[in-house]
Amino acid sequence: MDNKNQVKDNSTQQDVKSLDTNKTSLKNSRASLAFDMLKRNVNDLNDSSMLSSPINADAETQFHTFTPNFLFKISDIRGVLQKNKIWAKKMVDGDSEFFNRLSLQQQPKLLWIGCSDSRVPANQILSLQPGEVFVHRNIANVVLNSDINCLSVLQFAIEVLKVEHIIVCGHYGCGGVAYSMKEKSDLDLPIIDIWLRTLKDLFEDHEEDFKLLKDDKAKTDFLCELNVANSVLNVCRNSIIQKAWKAGQKISGKNS
Ligand SMILES: [Zn+2]
């Protein structure tokens, strides 16, 4: 790191001014174009909290770390990037061919459909390495046969990767499931309201069953379970997997 290229002031305006100075040496580069764009954004937002830490003037580094606070605190993202470097080194130290193998082709035999909740990451929970599980996640692990994102993942997993197992994983304490059960909320999330409509339908369809449960936690847990069952059913009913089963492809217990 070159000290003279470090932007030392923390204020927004001075950071932008320093970027102007550094820009001279970065003329016609990709970073220069990025700085122009960022400067415009910073000026538009006119928020001194946006840029809160010294920035390395190295073009590539600056391009990747000059991120507004509303997306990521710069200090945090630096820590994340550093963790990534440490992790990569650890992997190579343990297996010098690790990344060479990954660069060839992924061959996961498992598709995981789970919740976007940061507490339920597929690889860590299953203790699997990169390359060992193909993953689709969304809020509340919902599988809808109208969701082109999920269906694309399903098609690729079945028809290209030839996965042998599909896991739909829900989890207790799911914020999406709990939100869907509220008649009123302080949150105004109209898109998520649409997304979770299927959970509200499940809740209404099983209204009598829910009445038998005494407390909110039991009800939320039950809806988590119903939701997983419903998503599994939707996977099984989908034409992609139906076609594969009909053709004798080994997936999740059938034809195996
Ligand atoms: Zn969840």
TrEMBL record:
- Cofactor binding remark: Binds 1 zinc ion per subunit.
Return the Polar residues bias intervals: 8-23
The catalytic activity of this protein is classed by the Enzyme Commission as 4.2.1.1
Keywords of the record, alphabetical order, are: Lyase, Metal-binding, Zinc
Keyword Ubl conjugation listed: no
Q: What does the UniProt record say this protein does? A: Reversible hydration of carbon dioxide.
Similarity section:
Belongs to the beta-class carbonic anhydrase family.
Identification of the protein by name: Carbonic anhydrase
High-level lineage: Eukaryota, Fungi, Fungi incertae sedis, Chytridiomycota, Chytridiomycota incertae sedis
